[in-house]
Amino acid sequence: MVIGIDIGSTTTKVAAIISDNNIIKITTRAVDAITSATGAFGKMIMENDFRLDSIDRINMTGAGSSKITGDLFGIKTNKIDEMAAIGAGGKYLSKKDRIIISNIGTGTAIIQVSGNVITHLGGTGVGGGTIIGLAKELLKTTDFDTILRYALKGNINNVDLNVGDIAEANIGFLEKTYTASNFGKMLDIASREDIALGIINLTYQVIGMVSVFAARSKDNHTVVITGNGSNNPIGQKILKAISGMYNIDFDFPADAEYATAIGAALST
Questions:
Q1: What pLDDT, on a 0 to 100 scale, did the predictor assign at position 9?
Q2: Cα distances (Å, whole numbers) of residue 236 to 87, 112, 200, 249, 252
Q3: Cα 233 to the chain's mean position, in Å?
């Protein structure tokens, strides 16, 4: 058995692939990489009654993996390139050989998968960290569940300027309801709920457009969304709207938030 560990800036994820239909997953939070990684690994071992001698190796990836040297618990421990892990995990979860992956974490990485070739195309600093940072200043909270709860009740028309606000008719293929400027309206009546929705809308529209440009540049029509930001219901709705505008398919596979840990476990 191979264990994949993805040590991110805020969470650590562990994945063990038992079979195609059975992936065991664990998530932990900790203040430092070593505590987070060893805690997540120990939790998986204890909760699933694994024997240490049944584990062939541990494959580690993510920003925090550089802080861990040597083997964990006497088990051979490898470092896996994070972009390669994202590509392998996204390919495995999507069951497709030719895709663009947008991995939404603190920022967003854009990866191309073409058969067995994985290429890091670039990305954007806009991601989950953007939502938390703006909410800290504008909403006085960094709790993501609170931000999402606010946003679900928000009215984007009190925050964003849309095409219909500046034009009498559609502009090219842009309908009057489409965004012309994020936070370009900001009415005095805008509530914290409206602002929360505006923050999420800004974040996912940027991610969506960067993904569209990447996909079109590679003549690809499928973007697989992975990472912590993949299961945001408002974000998914925003990306699906962009999908309809640009004829790019956004896929949200099950377990997408564990794609990097899964990809690490699959790496040799």
A1: 77
A2: 20, 20, 11, 12, 8
A3: 13
Structure-token match 């606010």, residue found: 150
Q: Which residues of the chain have pLDDT under 70?
A: 20-21, 30
Give yes or no for a contact between 149 and 236, defined as CB atoms under 8 angstroms apart.
no
Report, at the CATH architecture level, how domain 2-79 is classified: 2-Layer Sandwich (3.30)
Q: Which residues of 41-73 are buried (b: 16+ CB within 10 A; e: fewer)?
A: beebbeeeebeeeebebbbbbbebbeebeeebe
Q: Which residues pair with 127 in a beta bridge?
A: none
For the chain, domain boundaries: 2-79, 96-154+191-254
Whole-model pTM: value is 0.92
Phi–psi pair at 231, nearest 5 degrees: -105, 20
Class of domain 96-154+191-254: alpha beta
Q: What is the pLDDT of residue 30?
A: 67
